[in-house]
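hi! just following up on the protien thing from before. the input was this:
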Amino acid sequence: MDRILNILIVDDESSQRTGLAGMVKAWGMNAETASDGSDALEKLEKFQADVIVTDLNMPHMDGYGLLKALREQGDMPPTIVLTGYGNVETALRTVHEMGAYWFIEKPIQPSMLQALLRRAAAHSGLRNEKKVLERQLQYKGSLGEMVGNSPRMQEIFSLLQQAGPSKACVLISGESGTGKELVARTLHVLSPRRQGPFVAINCAALPETLIESELFGHEKGSFTGASERRAGCFEVAQHGTILLDEIGEMPMLTQAKLLRILEDSKVRRLGGKTEFEVDVRVVAATNKVPDDAVKGGFLREDLFYRLNVFHIHLPPLRERKDDILEIAEALIVDLNRKHDTRVSDLVPEVLEAFQRHNWPGNIRELRNVLERAVIITGEGSIPLKNLPVTFQPQNAAVAAPAMPDAPPSAGDDSLHVPIGTTVEQAEKGLILRTLEFTKNNKTRAAEILGISLKTLHNKLKEYGRDTP
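and the predicted 3d structure came back as:
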């Protein structure tokens, strides 16, 4: 461990505690000693112990009394109990009933004690980090950029607390811009893998010819252009977490290989002859309804069941408008830091305009609107005039006609999205308008839209317009 550990040694025998202290210092740790439980409690007021090593039988306050006092204080470091022959049963009871970390029989084996000290300290660090995160979730209704006191978000926070420490796969669904990658990062932070890497890969952004190389890696000469061995994302994410974003855009053949990796925890590079084990937690995300993705042939049913151990669905911002003020305040703090501004809050008219808006782009759209307003405002409260024109009173109609299927007249390279247009309608209008702009060049249209050609064809199939 990078930080030097602090060990408190409690024993009524002077020679015993002095010998243990010398041994601990020889291992590169700090040591403080106490003669009994009462003395230990006094020392702990000034000495922040990572681990306590205490004898069980002592005059005045014994080890059992020390554990009881620490437990009542509610901030108990991992405690290793020392016990003589014949006291093993008592030591076990102390571990189970009073929450001691472990026990060691005398005479002490130095190697065992050293290993236990480091393991207990690591356990303490993970437990403290988890407590901090749980406290943030419970009392502030936030975790990093994840903010919300609405019942929907509180349910998600609760689910994150349950799923985070486990090794289970998690499937995150929700519209674009709702924060699926942020949820995945939160799961990583809440897990014992938090010290390992977090690797995110967007399956929709990679051509079919490259996705397997990105995921699994390749050997030198495995295909044209493979001039050297390359590690894939599963290797890079070893002992960490990998996010497979837009899992429904992954080719079916690749999905089959992914399913095998999830079941066997083994990867073979492209062109490789041997498999190697990987220890990676997989989190997948999709902006489709998972059941619809399976029925539509975008996601293998067996892979869906393997990924869907925990399912976290993120509601769109229009369904959690009670959280807008808290989200905006958190975003303003981050944007002030980014742009060196001193914006404090929103005027009431801005919050009213935000409440009227339908937010088709969800939190990503809110952040973009606020970023513009923060830069323009610079200092103080954001006024209504610093919002885009669609938020001004004369443009704030709640309802509006649906997006037409037919593209605008020739020569018009803009797209007008009235307030009240659904995300699906806006997406359809944008795709059809872009195709008209590119004179039906689907490859060029996919590049402009920032999606794969496969995704574009799938969308056109949905619209009944996928003609040769």
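Residues 26 and 225 are 54 Å apart (CA to CA).
Residues 6-130 form a domain with the Rossmann fold fold (CATH 3.40.50.2300).
cheers
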